[in-house]
Design a protein that fits this description.
The complex is a heterodimer of chains A (about 290) and B (about 350). Chain A is mainly α and about 290 residues long. Chain A has a single domain, classed as ABC transporter involved in vitamin B12 uptake, BtuC. In chain A, strand 2 and strand 3 form a beta hairpin. The longest helix of chain A is centred in the first third of the chain and has 30 residues. Chain A is globular and about 60 Å long. With about 350 residues, chain B is mostly helical. Chain B has 14 helices and five strands. In chain B, the strands form two sheets. A three-stranded antiparallel sheet of chain B has the order 2-1-3, with helices on one face. In chain B, strand 1 and strand 2 form a beta hairpin. Chain B is globular. The two termini of chain B are about 40 Å apart. The chains are: A mainly alpha (about 290), B mainly alpha (about 350). The interface between A and B is large, with 46 and 48 residues.
Amino acid sequence: MSFISYLINGISLGSVYALIALGYTMVYGIAKMLNFAHGDVIMVGAFITYTMCSTMGLSPVIGVLAAVVACTLLGMAIEKVAYKPLRKAASPLAVLITAIGVSYLLQNVALLIFGANAKAFTSVVSVPALKLADGQINITGETIVTILSCLVIMAGLMLFINKTKAGQAMLAVSEDKGAAQLMGINVDGTIALTFAIGSGLAAVAGVLLCSAYPSLTPYTGSMPGIKAFVAAVFGGIGSIPGALVGGILLGIIEIFGKAYISSQMADAIVFAVLIVVLLVKPAGLFGKNIQEKV
Amino acid sequence: MKKLSNKKMNKTFRDNLITYGMVIAAYVIMQILVSAGAVSSLIQGLLVPLCTYAILAVSLNLTVGILGELSLGHAGFMCIGAFTSAFFSKVMENTALPSGLRFFCALLIGALFAGIFGLLIGIPVLRLKGDYLAIVTLAFGEIIKNLVNILFVGLDENGFHISFTNTMDLNMSEDGQVIIKGAQGITGTPHDSNFTIGIVLLLVTLFIVLNLIHSRDGRAIMAIRDNTIAAESVGIHITKYKLMAFSISAALAGVAGVLYAHNLSTLTALPKNFGYNMSIMILVFVVLGGIGNIRGSIIASVILTLLPELLRGLNDYRMLIYSIVLIVMMLFNWAPKCIEWREKVAARFKSKKSVKKEAE
């Protein structure tokens, strides 16, 4: 029985990773950059909800909406100020380091405003827990909401990308920027839209993560950010179904590793699995392996 | 023809001399300032870390700048060097070995182990490219840090005992000594490193890296960086040279780890000193100093290490300012528009100068 509850917990944690990984994967697919500040956008989203709900006493719905809107704007602002000027830079490392700078900036702004002490995040979920098999399996409301919202967001995103003009434009830009521009696609606008969607999803992920693990510090986002990055690579970076599968697998591996092997080794196990997967499939599970032409 | 190549040799030679001279000059100035009592104890405490960071930056530049592969696990190799050497020093502490020789052996052991790990990790990993390589090196760094945190090693008359759970599990005899205590790390490492040793090690690192770059092997490595397929087609052994650069870089990071470990009495593997944050910080030194520019790496590591300390008066705001300075410097150095603007300004200066000259 404990196996099933571990599995459900793993899927729940994995859903959060998948939401964060989506942001990584979309940005990578379109701008070919690793957005190291993405993990800290999660933290910003969680802090906004915390301020709205716990400090100001507003309803959770308003808190979450405010976080999503604020993070969307934040993501677009970061892209405009820090990443766009470096898009044609001589080395791709330049924008990577700038992203690290943005990550430090967000952490330190949060540190100045909220201090280093962990805040107790009140869960935004008011769904009652589900008891199955005579109370042997206890599924918390947070778990249900996390898994459901991940599935809904995923389906919505797939529809958006495959059925709308803006979504098709995103696919075109990720395929070939120059050709997309020749077809009359607004490349800058499309990239900004990608950052906006990714950051909005990060806000949702932050709220869900902190509802399940209610300790919030300015550094809350960095480890989940790295794990989600691993999940994105795991599933094949640039691939949206890959992010979902990679995220959920990673969550399950982490929870099982904690439960059955060693709680201190959980992170090492996650990273070891990643290495093995990449050695067998160098472009990730769903990644396209592009042959280099001479 | 001969004269031309002579001239070119002289130029690289002169360039290298400037780099060595800069380090030696900095050392002499610091020593004079210290003996004159003009340096606060805070800055004095930073001297060995400065050397550590400079060595790390130079060695990472070998991977990132010369080999052209992004590595985010450099702190992991430093961690291996630090722990193996501190372990050795701790075991040998009560033997008759003089401390100078002990430190020298520790240095060799740290470098050797880090180099071996670099080789072992490099064999599978260097098949990957670009960002995939970056994430796998990051993963390796985290695994190393994680494993060190749960490693317990003890020594008694029956030899070494190793456990991955706790001290009790070691089954030691009563007079045994636990050397590595899991998350508590190694305590009481002999304080063997100082600023002079740090500078000597930095010079040795520079000597190895600069000579490698300007050797036949170094040119082969740079050819791989510029175009792997072309390099392969002229008969350069890709795997051999990649592994060579990667393991030398790892071994030098191990040297930095030895220096780091013997400067502290307590050595623990925290996210702060051996986690990916540290690897990223070293990468920041390399990129800001100029990718492939060895001298730049040293200057950037010194400036970026001193900057937060100099801003200490601003207390809580210092890391905020540090991050803003980092972003602005990156934009200023790398954004095509900024480069264009800088060139325009420089051209205006130049034309003014030449006008003046003509007038004279």
